[in-house]
Structures are given as structure tokens and as C-alpha cells.
Amino acid sequence: MPEKMMATRRDAAVLCDPLPAFFRQVRTLSAALVASLSDADATVQAMDDASPAKWHLAHTTWFFETFVLRDHVPGYALYDERWPFLFNSYYEAEGERHARARRGMLTRPALDEVLEWRAHVDAAVEAALPGLSAEARALVTLGCHHEQQHQELLQTDILALFALNPLAPAIWAEPRTPPAPAPAPIRWIEGMRGIVEIGENGADGFAFDCEGPRHPVLLHPHAIADRPVTNSEWIAFIDDGGYRRPDHWLSDGWTWVKANAVEAPLYWRRAADGGWNAFALDGLHAVRPAAPVTHISYYEAEAFARWAGARLPTEAEWESAARCFDPEGGNLLDRAGPARPCASPAGEGVGQMFGDVWEWTGSAYLPYPGFRPAAGAVGEYNGKFMSGQFVLRGGSCATPRGHVRASYRNFFYPHQRWQFAGVRLAKDL
Amino acid sequence: MPEKMMATRRDAAVLCDPLPAFFRQVRTLSAALVASLSDADATVQAMDDASPAKWHLAHTTWFFETFVLRDHVPGYALYDERWPFLFNSYYEAEGERHARARRGMLTRPALDEVLEWRAHVDAAVEAALPGLSAEARALVTLGCHHEQQHQELLQTDILALFALNPLAPAIWAEPRTPPAPAPAPIRWIEGMRGIVEIGENGADGFAFDCEGPRHPVLLHPHAIADRPVTNSEWIAFIDDGGYRRPDHWLSDGWTWVKANAVEAPLYWRRAADGGWNAFALDGLHAVRPAAPVTHISYYEAEAFARWAGARLPTEAEWESAARCFDPEGGNLLDRAGPARPCASPAGEGVGQMFGDVWEWTGSAYLPYPGFRPAAGAVGEYNGKFMSGQFVLRGGSCATPRGHVRASYRNFFYPHQRWQFAGVRLAKDL
Amino acid sequence: MPEKMMATRRDAAVLCDPLPAFFRQVRTLSAALVASLSDADATVQAMDDASPAKWHLAHTTWFFETFVLRDHVPGYALYDERWPFLFNSYYEAEGERHARARRGMLTRPALDEVLEWRAHVDAAVEAALPGLSAEARALVTLGCHHEQQHQELLQTDILALFALNPLAPAIWAEPRTPPAPAPAPIRWIEGMRGIVEIGENGADGFAFDCEGPRHPVLLHPHAIADRPVTNSEWIAFIDDGGYRRPDHWLSDGWTWVKANAVEAPLYWRRAADGGWNAFALDGLHAVRPAAPVTHISYYEAEAFARWAGARLPTEAEWESAARCFDPEGGNLLDRAGPARPCASPAGEGVGQMFGDVWEWTGSAYLPYPGFRPAAGAVGEYNGKFMSGQFVLRGGSCATPRGHVRASYRNFFYPHQRWQFAGVRLAKDL
Amino acid sequence: MPEKMMATRRDAAVLCDPLPAFFRQVRTLSAALVASLSDADATVQAMDDASPAKWHLAHTTWFFETFVLRDHVPGYALYDERWPFLFNSYYEAEGERHARARRGMLTRPALDEVLEWRAHVDAAVEAALPGLSAEARALVTLGCHHEQQHQELLQTDILALFALNPLAPAIWAEPRTPPAPAPAPIRWIEGMRGIVEIGENGADGFAFDCEGPRHPVLLHPHAIADRPVTNSEWIAFIDDGGYRRPDHWLSDGWTWVKANAVEAPLYWRRAADGGWNAFALDGLHAVRPAAPVTHISYYEAEAFARWAGARLPTEAEWESAARCFDPEGGNLLDRAGPARPCASPAGEGVGQMFGDVWEWTGSAYLPYPGFRPAAGAVGEYNGKFMSGQFVLRGGSCATPRGHVRASYRNFFYPHQRWQFAGVRLAKDL
């Protein structure tokens, strides 16, 4: 249960209910993430895949108002009856909704109004919490994790927006750390073999439905890299003609490269000196060689691996390797600010499994054996997206600490790269 | 004020310079038009054809800063060297520019920053005015008329944006006037015949280059309606299957109707009682039967005319009929507020030539005999748009008073209808 | 034969009926035009704008079967009741029809079956002709002129198809004539001024409805070039950066140039020696410098004229200049074979008005004063296309001799260039 | 013949070389498959996903000419040096090629010319076969299996083309068999559990590279249906609102249903009596209730399974179940003619694993552990398509007998349904 997880973090001996604090912490972070945004910044939609920051704030609030307050708090009246239509995302069972591609047209309600709605709903949830049923409490918990997902999206979506502005404005202006030394060459760590169990069984704390059921898988002899691929290694790929030689690429990937004239990770721009700059949450800066490459698509990750004579890990390989690491360790998001992937620390063995960058696996996002989605609208959470996407693992520098787990399955289409997505290599033994 | 300017034009002995007042009046009105808009309202772009309100404010300022201050005021330093790239519209001679379809991505600079830029440029222009050359003064005048055009676009573009919001927010909340009585049936007024002159000769005051040269045209026997078509008449067209019978329509028009499932003017929505509401600058209200129909495309105007056994006037017919009317009379824009077409006043003879709604003519937008665009960037103002568009005449309720003339040629593509465009019938005799 | 028909027009005393011979001549030429085509050649559709050769053969046959045999010959039974759905082009009054973009999917009926249908319909029309009413005879005449239009389209559509084949197969293999000497530089011939009449009055022989009513127009002082622009002159335009400088172009034209990477007339290809080849009905050959340029769009014609300091003629200017020439003279189509524009012959005064290349005018395709389309399905022939297109005049090397007249108005969209379209310059005096 | 080949596999003592006979049998069948097609039928491309029949004939010939004759037969001169550009499909290593979407524009070379080329290449291969190296022989074998794949595509592509013809012409006119009795309700057969091996090891006869390496997989407790889903069962799904309820569908699937207004399998059309007809290789006929449903997408298969409370089998489940069946038994293609899925025969246990319809599995098409594509151009055969597609198993009525195996992995995108694709259910135990 998440209560345990939360408690564990701060205090081994918890006497009181951790859910209110978790709720408050999550809700507070969302508001902090938009602190540097104007009303306009929070309203515009960078592309169909992205949503406005304001929409994220409202949609996560809609989730609590609908599934907790409306359904479980007798007498609760909707704050504004017209807003559910605006802020439902994709829950067909909840009826018609505003078209996704038009989310950026909603200049009203304004950011301030949405923040007021948030305060109203927060107060109502907090007031109701002590008396909520276990079912309703589970929905609050789900809503918090749901909101944490949107916190990451909020950051990547606002980054996508600011990247379209020729002024390249920094979302967060904080001093940069000095460049890290180049990490040692990749070392290959042999993975477990034979039958291992992966997935969540619902007994160890919160997990999304798609993370289970826990089940045995058969691992083939393999090794996994001790760290993600760095920007410096990626530049070697570029310099070796990586984006110009079709034999490195999946057929769909090559079509995508040509159709979009792709020649570097998203947000990279040629500098005047021939090097590379990258646009990030802290503005436009020179690419940092030692940091993990990010904002790459599955196609790019796969092509790089082919070029490197390796492959992507399967999600079972990844998860079995990650089991021994603390999912709350690593470069994850603790506070509002310019999330940045960091260079690998010196060390032995596998590192950086959690945080920094999501790692593309070679596994398609499909149901585990025995998977059944939950009944009702919340059952639309994960299962219905199980076609055409690939699994990413491990969380990123923009993932709220506490949100990710070894069993956590993120998923995107192979061409998408506006997330903090990177790559760790694997190979057969 | 434009009235003074008009007077000045005709009076060789100028005692006081009307240009500063004209400049100030125009610049002030633009700011007033966005008074009810939030930063977000002013930033979002409703569609590719439209621009954000903030962009209009900035682009008109760019015009003065570039063509007047930069080119004619020694020592003037650009307010921000990065902004011309953002706010050039289509002047190829002025270099590369931000893509039109991405104008809505520019959340920075914010509305306030743009307003500050406006103030800075206003002060610089006003300071420079007394010493400007005649050439530079002509550019200030051009800039004012240019800005008046953008004032109208600003209103129609923000209307297009708010129309996409399911909340149907009113841009201006002002009490509605009581419904007007139905006007008398259309009366046909015989037009001039034989050779008449149309167009501007550049001697009577400001005009855009495309309005001249003044030249003779041959008018065929014809009559023109005494007023525009009303909403009530349009409803009769709808009820008679006007949008369902291909024989009323141009081939391209019928394709457009089917592809877009058009069944009424833009912004009309079926009311619960089976009648029609329309979304306007003052929100969603029942269609007012006596007012001129607006937000129709050329295709619709032409189909209606065919259905009515009539045709559209040519621009020469229109202009010859309009010569006897005061272009500063009529329902034009005097101040920021909810511009609305009004019902025809009782009266005899042709009416409502100026104001209320732009009137589609049956004339393609093409150069007059002897037309030559001006040299340099400002020569891109009109001439390069002379293909595929039709001429509209007369101004609308959203056109600043003083901006329109009998010779004024507005132009849009035949499918476009987000302007205050309506229709006046004509017929052969 | 059209010559006879023309004679008939002028001779009130008709001794023999020319219509059967005209019908036979037209129908025979169509079949001859496909003589070198395989079933596959005649079936495939090169693009949405074009139609398969087989479709042209069938559609023109459908016209006679529907409007003459079905409607005016009692007891006539349709050859195949399923075929009208396939071969109606755009006559809404004739009901639903096969989608235009899918004409190339109709591998059945085969070319041979369509030719059999033609023979069947030909026999039925010829048998019926002596007893047909004047109304029905007018439809036969219309059908013949309609088919002549499709004869030209058939040639340009099959050219468009073969141009997509990397083998560049020649449609007609005939020896080329030796290159012509370069014509003298363009001379400017002063045009008529003042009021002249243009258009057909229906009394002088066949004309399409859109060519009338005959009406006075006012001509402004102008001059017209004595010949069309040549390939050699076009190469000078290219070499001077004509396709790279936006200031030559209409705004829509420049967008079109960039979107399609246009750098030369359609079908031109860079030769190995840096010169230009062009693909034509007789295969791929070096561009002939002295011949009129062809396969250019309105945008290109207009840009060239701007570059040359001239403009396009209006259709009234063109028609008034053409009145003194024999529309059956010139390089027009007499027989099936590789139609080619030819170099201007030596001579004085205006030349090449008829034949060689259609000449883009600067006039939008709009109704003449007093124009009313015919009632019924044949009324859809012309009038409904009167938006967005420009008029071309004079016929081309692919226009059957006898088909074109001084009053003849051809029309295409400004981006279209798969017709034999060229340009003659004009200028203001 | 493939029978012999199979024998060869199992029998170490080979007395005669089966490859020439296999080659001849494959090449002969291709030609027989186009026997009823006209030149036009064989030339037109129904859609981007499909290719013209003539192209299939030519491309398979190009494969032998390029990889066998050009590369392994000294002195062989290409039949026509321009044709490889036309008929390479997607082998980047073989250079530039004609755009896939324009294959239908190639009316030349004609069908007859391609058949002559085939004869020429056949003679050259047959002459060379006795002296070919083992490497070259392997390429001949690969070419034969490659051509068998194209034989199936040829049939489905020509079906797609004829389905666009409103005349609904039958490709093969053969009498239909009387309707089969309805099969018994689906019975669930328990599958193997624990570790089993799947995939080919290259030692048992021909297999494509993607079928290996053979490797252990872990099977979870499950059952598999004894037969595919029938048309009658599919009609129950339709009648129960299967295509109208989003909760049955994957998110991408529901988007696809709405965007394409899908309401039944491809080629189904409402009959006048409210029932269903289906267009097939033998024309338009009433849907046969007892036969397996076909021409469904993955999305439809998955939605049906959800509706039925079941799921799709994984490819490992399918393969382990199929191991005990003869892959040369079942309703597969023996000769040119109207391939049709047949009703399940009476019987016990799992049936119809091979033939009738390809069966969508729930497995994404991804590499097996240890998979490495072959070097060179033929290495582009399979591996580069491993993203976004799902695996289908078992072959269909249009798959040449001898071509399919238990390990055979076919793959298509989840929206594609012009193949003979059906569905067999599975469930967890």
C-alpha cells in the first residue's frame, strides 16, 4: 500500500494515516511546477501529443472531483457543471469530452480559476478523507499517482512549448552545475538467468493495474550495460553517419527519419562552432557530454543499439536487474525546478536504473498473463493502450520521487521523444 | 482623428498637422480592443487563418518600428533585436520570419511586454513625427491604416477563438438592444449605366495601392438591392434546403459544403427549440431576424443569390452605387465593444453600403489597369495576393470608422467566413 | 468535318446535313488517339486531376447515350445499366457516381468493351440522327464539342501518366523535325482601345454557354506580344533565379513553388550536360529553344511576366486581338500523333493566336454580364466552375482543329500545368 | 514440389535434387494466378499497401535475377538494366527504387513483357541450378519461399482492387459449394504448460531468419479454442453493438473504427434483405455462416475476444499447439482459383490450425532472443519490420501448400485487414 511506502520513506514508525500528507504533497508540487508560468504559458498546447499545463492541473482535479467527491461524498456539488466536459481526458465511460487537439483553445477558465478550483477540491477531499471508504481511499491514492504522472507530462509539455519559441526562454533560471567528468566506458553486467518473477502482486504497495499480475518469466543469458548511453556517445553515432545509413534503422524508423529530416535528438540545435546545443528546462545550453542522452525515440534507441552491436533490454531483463536498487534513490524530482539528467557517478556495477532518463526497452506494451483491467471508468487507465507502444522503465529526472518502482511500466509510441527518454544497452551472452 | 485627416486631404492650407492625432487615436483603440482579454486570450491562435490578438498588437508595432523608426530615424535602436523575426507577417524582403501557423506558440513576450513595446514605439514615433520626411510621414499614415485593418482582424480572430470554447464566453458583456422590426422586402434600385470611373487616383487622401489607378469601366444595365440580406431571409434559404441542393452551388462550393458538413453560417448553432443561436462578441444569443446575415463565405453568398434568382454585384457596380454615400456614416466601429451588424433602418433608396457587414462582390481580386505595386517591402502589401480571392466592399461593424472608402477593396478566399462578411444582391436589367 | 460545319454556319442554304459527318469525325478521332495505348495504359489514372484514357472514351459515350439516346430516342435500352454510375463525371442532376479519384480502379469494363460500347452508341446515334428534333440535334452537337474537349484532356492525361514511368516511354514514335531558328525578339503590337464587343451571341455557330452573352467591354490602352514566350526565354528566367526570388511571385504562387520544389516547367528534367530535357508525347528530348514554353502554371506565367516587366493580357484584350485570325489556322490537332508546340514562323504582326499553346490570361473565369446557365443537367457544363480559376485562350497543338474560337474560354486553377499551357505577354500603354 | 522438399528434410539420403522441381512449381503457380487477369487488372494498384499483380510477378523475378543470376552466375547480363529500379521493393542496400505508392503507374513494361522476362529468368536459373554453389542454392530456395509469400499477396491485392469496382467482378468464376452445417460451439482445449521450445533451428528445412533461433519459452496455464471464430459468431458480435461500444476496443482501435466508420469486416456489404454479403475472389455472395470470419484487423480480433470474455493466443501458445499438426494439411492453396475459408469439419480437439485464415496472435512482432539478421541485402528481409506489427500464424486458404510451418511468423499492422486474417480465441486458466 502507498501508505506504507510513504511512511517508510520518512519514518519507520508511523502512527497516523499517511494518505492526507501524500495527497497534500502531490497537490502542492503540481502548483509549484507552474509557479514560473504565465497564464498564457499554462494555456497553449504545443502539439496534439501534449497538453497545456493548465489542462494538467484541471484534469487531475477533475479526477478527484469525479471519482472521489462526486461518487463517494454524499451531497457534494460540482464546482462547475460545465468543466467535466472540458477536462475529461479519454474516459469513454464518462461521456463526451472536449477534443484533445483543441485543449489549447481553452483560454477560459483562466489559470487562476483553475487554481481556485484546485483549492476547493483539495479542501473537500481533505475534509472527506477521514470518513472515506477503503474503495474511495484507493481512488484517492490512484488519483495521487495519476497526478504524479501528469506532473512529469506537465514538464515535458511545457518544454515542448517553449522549444517552439525562437526566443528560447528558460522555464527555470538556475545556475548550471559545472560539467561532470566523462564516465568510464560501458561495462557489461551479466543478468539473471532462468525463471524469475516480475510484476507486482498488489501486496507491496501501490501499483497500476498493468504492472501485474506477478508472474514467472524465463530469462535468456544476457548482459546489461552499467549505465545509460551518454551524449558524448550519441555524438559519435551522429558523426559516424548514424542518421544517414538506413541499415541501422527499422523500416518505420527510417521512414520517420526521412519524413522529419531527423539528424539529432529532439531539441538539439547546431551551435555556431559546429557543436551541439540543446534546449532544456533551463534554456539553451551546450550539450553536456557526460550526461545521459535524452529526448530520443524508440527508433533512435534501437538504431543506436544496432550500430553499437548491441540491443535494447527486454522489460523482464530490466526489471530483474532493477530489483536490487532503491526506487527512491537516483536523480528523481524532489521539487519544482529545472529537471536535468546527470552524469553517471563513479562506481561499480549497474547504476542509474532509477531517475535521469526513462529507458526504452525492446518490449512491446502488452498485457501480462492473466491481466484484467479494473471495472468501470478507471479500468480505462492502462489496458486500452496496449497496441503499438513500447515499454520504458526506470523514471527520469522529471519523475516525482516515490512515484516509480521496479515494476513500473511507462509506454510511448516508437516515434515519440518529447519525454525524458534515453537508452541503456543490453546484449545476448 | 480620421475626420480631420479627411478634411486635411481636401484642404491645401493645412494649419495643424492631423497625423499625430490620427496616430494616437489608432494606437489607443488597438489597446482598448484587448482590454477585456487575458494574457492567454491574447496569445492563443484559433486557426491558421487567424492570428493571436497579441500578435496583431506586436505586428502593427513592428511595422512602425521597422519602416519608420529603423529606416527613417537616425540612431534609433531596436527595442529587442529578436522580435522582428517573430512579428514580421509576410514581407519576404524583410527576411525570414516565424511560421504563420506557429504564432500561437509565442507565450513570450507576454501581453504586458508587448504593450510596453507599443508604448516605447509610440513615444519614439510621436517624438520623431515633427521632423519626418514626407516619405516617412506617408509610411506613418500607411501604418495607421494598416493597423486599422488589423483592428478588425483582431476582433474576428478573437471571436474565432472564443467560439471554440464550449463555455461560449462573451468577449464583451453589454446589454443587447431590443430586436428591430423586420425591414421591408428588398427593393431593387437601378444602377448607373455606361462608362463611369472607379478607383482612387491618389489625390483625394489615403488609399491603398490596389485601389488605383482610377480608371473608366463600362457598366451594364443592372439593379442593386437597397439593403443586405437579413438573417430571416437566410433562414428561409436554409429551410428551403439551401445547403442540401447542389444545383444552387458552385462546384467548389458544393465540395466545401460536403467536406465541412456546412448547414448554416459560421457560429450558428441549433437552439433547443429548433431555432438558431449565434455566437458573437457578446456571447451566444438567438439570431436576430432583422439584422444582416454575417459570417458567410463567398460560396454561400453566391448560392443564396442563385437561389434568390439574383447575382452578386460587381465591384464596379458596388462602387458606383456607393459614391453618393458618406463612408464615415453607418454602423462602423467607434470604440472597443461588441461590434454587431444592425437591422436596416427604415428609409428609401440604397442603404447600409458602409458598415454592418462586408459585402461579397462577384469580382475576383485582380489588378486594375495600369496597377503597379510600390517598390520595396511595402510593395508586398496588396499586389501579391491577387489570385484566387474575391473582393468585398463597404466595411463592417468591426471596421474602424474612417478606415473604409468607396474605393476600398477587401479580399478573402471564397471559403473564408470568419470575417463580418454578408451579401447584397444585384441583378441584370 | 468541322470545316463543313463552319461553312454551314456561314451559309444559310444548307444543302446537306453536316452533323453526321462531324459526329463521325469526332468519334473516329477519339478512337485513333488511343490506338497506341494498351489496356493498362488506357486504364490507369495519373493523378486526381487527370482521368484514364478509357474513362474519357466511356464518359463521352455516356454523354450521347444519356442526353441523346435515353432522352430523345424512344425505346432505346441502355447498353449496360450499371455503366452510367461509372462514367458520369460531375452532373449532380444525373445522380450519384463513381468517385473521381477512383476512376483508375476500373479495370473492368476493359478498353475493348468500351470500344464496343462506343460502336454500339455510334450506330444508334447515326441511325437516329435523321429523325432527331432540333433540341436533340443541339445535344449531339454539344456532345461532339464536349468530346473534342476530352480529346485534348485524353492526350494531356496520358502524358501525365507516362511521365511517371521512369522508363519515359514515348506515346507516339515519330521522327522529330529539325530545330527551328530562334524567332525574332518579341514585338509589341498595339491593341484596340475603347468599347469593343466580345463573346458569342449564339448566332454564328456552336459556342459553349459561358462564351456569351456577347457584350461590350472597355479596352484600356495596351499592347500585346506578337508571339508566345519561348523555351529559350524561359531558360533565361530560370538562369536569372526566376524560381528562387519571391518578389517575382504571387504569394500563393511562392507557397506553391516552395511546397513543390518547382524549378522549371512540368516535365522538364536536367540533362547530364546541365541543359534541359522535356518529356513529351514523343518521349524525352532536349528542350527546343525556339518553341513556345508549355506546361506552365498561371503562377509561373504571372511571375515570368513580372520578371519581364510586363503582364498577362486580359481575356478581352486577347479576344479583340484574335478576332482577325482564322481559328482553324495554326498548329492544331488534325490527327492522332505527337502534338508539339512549334516555333513561331517568321512574319509580321501578331501570330500564333490559335494553336501551339493555350495562353493564360490575367482574367478570372467569371460569368459575362447577363450569363444564365442552361436548364437541366447540361446546365452544369460550365457555370458551376466559376470560382478560383483563370481563363486561357487560343487552343493548343492538342486541340482538335475546328474546336476553338476567338470567344472560346478554357479555364484551370492557377497551380495546374499538365495542359499545353503557355504565355503571351501584354503591357499597358 | 514442397512435398519433396519436406521429404528431403527428413531423409538424409537424397536421391534426386528437389530444388529444380520446387522452383518450377512455384514459378508456374504465379503465372497461373494471373491467368484470368487482363493487362489492366495486373497493372493497377488498389492502395498504397497493395501492389499490382504485375509488380508481384516482376519483383519476384527481380529477386532471382539479382541475388542469384547477377551475383552467382558469371557472365549473366541483366534482361533490362532499367528494370531493377522499377521492381526492387525495399532493399536499401540495392539502391534507389521506384516509389511504392507509384507502382500502379507502371503501365510499361506490359504484363506480356513481364511474363517474357519471367521465362527468360526461369530458363537461366534452371540452366544454372546444377552448377550453383550451396550459397546460391540457398538463395534460390529463399527466392521460392519469397515468391510464395507474394503469391498470397497477389491474391489479396487483386481482391482489394476488384472490391473497388462497383461492378463487383468475380476474379474466378467457379461454382460455390453448398453451405456447410454450423460447427459445434467452441470447445476449449488446454494448452501445454511450463517450458517449451519454439522457433526453428535451421536444421529441419527452410525457415525465414525471424523464425529462429529456437529457444525455450515459459507457457502459463491457458486454453485455446478448437477452431477459429465463424462468420455467424461475428454477426452476433455486430448485432450486439460490437462496433458501437468503446469499452470493447483498444484506444487506437476505437479511433480507427470511428475514423473509418467501420461496422463489419472488410468487403462485407449490407444485403437488401438486411443480411450481409461479402465480396470475395469469386464475386459478391451471401456471407457463409459456418465459415471462419476473415478480413478483420487486429483491432477487431482483439475487440471480439474482449467481448467474448477471452483473449488472443500468444504466438508461443499457438506454436506449441500447432506442433502436432501437419502444416501441409488443411485448407491451403493447391492451384489457381477462388481461395475461400471453409467451415470447420466435424471432429474432436484442436482443428484448422493450418490454412483457412491467418490467426492474429496477441504477440507483437519482435526478435527472438539471439536473433541476428543475415548480412547483406537479404538481411533486410524480416528484421527491419520489427516495430508496430502483430504476429499472425497458420497460413490461409490463399497460402501455397508447403509454404507455412508451425514456426512461421507472418506480421501486419493492427489496422490492416486486406489479408485472409481471422481469429482463434484463447483464455487463461
Automatic annotation (TrEMBL), chains A, B, C, D:
One GO BP annotation of this record: ergothioneine biosynthetic process
Alphabetic keyword roster: Iron, Oxidoreductase
This protein's record includes keyword Oxidoreductase: yes
Residue ranges annotated for the Sulfatase-modifying factor enzyme-like domain, each copy included: 194-324, 348-427
Gene3D superfamilies the record matches: paralog of FGE (formylglycine-generating enzyme) (3.90.1580.10)
Record bears the keyword Transcription: no
DinB-like domain location: 23-151
Xref: PANTHER family: HERCYNINE OXYGENASE, SULFATASE MODIFYING FACTOR 1, 2
Protein name: Sulfatase-modifying factor enzyme domain-containing protein
